Every structure is written in C-alpha cells, then in structure tokens.
Amino acid sequence: MTWAGAGEVVSVNTSVRKTVRKTPGQAGRLIFDRGFEGDAHAGDWHRQVSLLALESIEKMVERGLRVGPGDFAENITTSGIDLMSLPVGTVLSIGDEVRLEISQIGKVCHIRCAIFLQAGDCVMPREGLFAVVRAPGDVRVGDRIAVVSEGDGTCDRTPAEAIAEFEAERAAQP
Q1: Is residue 162 within 8 Å of 132, Cβ to Cβ?
Q2: Domains, the chain, with CATH or none
Q3: 114: phi then psi, degrees, rounded to nearest 5
Q4: How far apart are CA 158 and CA 76, in angstroms?
Q5: Could you list the pLDDT tens digit for every one of the 174 residues in the chain?
Q6: Angle at the Cα of 141 (from 139 to 146), degrees rounded to 5?
C-alpha cells in the first residue's frame, strides 16, 4: 500500500533499564511476541516495540533541543513513512523477516520525562507508535519498512483499559 508510504530504519535503540534514553545501534534481534532481545520494554504486553519518526524528533530539534534517535526511548527510529496515518492493527514489514502489528498510538505520560521538563513538550506521547512482534528477526539500519495490511483500529493484544486511558487523556488536552 502506498497511502502511508514506505520508509526505512534510521536507528535501532535499546536499553536495559526503563525511563532512560535508549542507546542507538545498527541492529537488534526481535523475539516473537516479546520485543528486542535485551531491551527493558520487551515482555508479555502490548507495547513490546516502540517506533518514532525522525521527522518527529526534528520537530524537537527545531525547538532548540539537542536530541536524536533513542532519546525518546523509542526502539526503532524511522524515516520516510507516515507513522501517524497508521491505524491500530496495521501490520508492518521490516526487512525480509520482521512483521510488527501496531497495538497503540501514543501513550499517556504519567511522569514528565527530562525532555518534557526541558522543553515543556515531548513528541513521544502523541507521535510514538507501539507494536507487538508477529514475526521475529533482525532489524538493521537501512531496512525497508512497508505496510503489509491496514488495520481496523483493533489489536488482540491491546487491553481495553489502555485504549480508554489514552482516549481520556487525549480528550482532556486542549
């Protein structure tokens, strides 16, 4: 499908701890229904992998922040694909092996991260995507990302309370 375009992996980012910036790298191994091997966010839940567009990071750079891939704790930094046009349930291919299913768009930010405190804003809660691993494999910088199938707004791994919480947060914002 071309409605969201195709893109590529700019950076693969992991961290052994949560609530910290992730370390950018060249590659990582995705484990079926878990996430990136060795990453703190991997596990049996609906936010196994996070994606953020380089174009979103550049918005924060334009505001004067010195940030780059991994600084928003995203696992995969992308370029060239319109992540915000992808509904929940969309299946993405990365390279020849990997398949991810979008399970959540944005997130509620319960604690204000260092970026929010510095800039008064953060793009990850609005523009980050979360996914579950449907087909494992290696992800490398330069891998092509493409839409395999458009979602219908649902993912069997996304709990109803996660959807309700995010919708309530979004409705409360001006």
Answers
A1: no
A2: 7-172 (2.40.33.20)
A3: -60, -35
A4: 20
A5: 334 678 999 999 999 988 788 999 999 999 999 999 999 999 999 999 999 999 999 988 888 888 899 988 899 999 999 998 999 999 999 999 999 999 998 765 555 555 554 545 555 657 889 999 999 999 999 999 999 999 998 999 998 887 777 677 667 766
A6: 65
Which residue has tokens 């800039």?
A: 119
Structure tokens at 45: 């839940």
| Residue 5: count of CB within 10 angstroms of its CB | 14
pLDDT for the residue numbered 107: 66
Measured CA to CA, the distance from residue 22 to residue 120 in angstroms comes to 21
Tokens of 70: 């991994």
The SS3 assignment for 68 reads: coil
Please list, in sequence order, all residues whose beta carbon lies within 8 angstroms of the beta carbon of residue 137, skipping any fewer than 6 positions away.
29, 30, 94, 95, 96, 97, 98
Nearest 5°: phi and psi at 163?
-65, -45
Q: Name the residue type at position 157.
A: R
pTM, full prediction: 0.87
Q: Which two tokens stand for residue 11?
A: 């950076």
**What's phi and psi for 110, nearest 5 deg?**
-75, -30
